[in-house]
Design brief:
mainly alpha; 2 strands; elongated
């Protein structure tokens, strides 16, 4: 095969893969079983599963490498709300201060 024919075949395969990716996403979003979706769309289940396998393989081949990141640990604020008034407190507030505040609000 010449370069033009090879490039054309690659584009054709990529378009077919995109079409099947869209159909698989459509089936998954439909709420139907694969069998029901195939019946409604005139697709043989064997054909559907063949293309599902190919789409998954392409995804695995093109998936990015996982790079670990060091994310600083963040503590969540404590939020207290009563009668429409909201108070945000730092997560490292002393237990005595928090207890005194809760007792005064209640």
């Amino acid at each position: 095969m010449d370069a033009k024919t090879t490039a054309l075949a690659a584009v054709k395969q990529e378009v077919r893969m995109q079409e099947w990716s869209a159909q698989i996403a459509e089936q998954q979003a439909s709420g139907l079983t694969v069998r029901q979706w195939c019946i409604e769309n005139g697709v043989k289940p064997k054909t559907y599963y063949y293309h599902l396998k190919k789409v998954r393989e392409q995804f695995l081949d093109s998936s990015p490498t996982i790079v670990p990141l060091n994310v600083p640990q963040q503590s969540a604020d404590i939020r207290i709300e009563k009668n429409g008034v909201q108070i945000s407190l730092p997560a490292n507030i002393s237990p005595d201060t928090l207890l005194a505040l809760v007792q005064s609000l209640c």
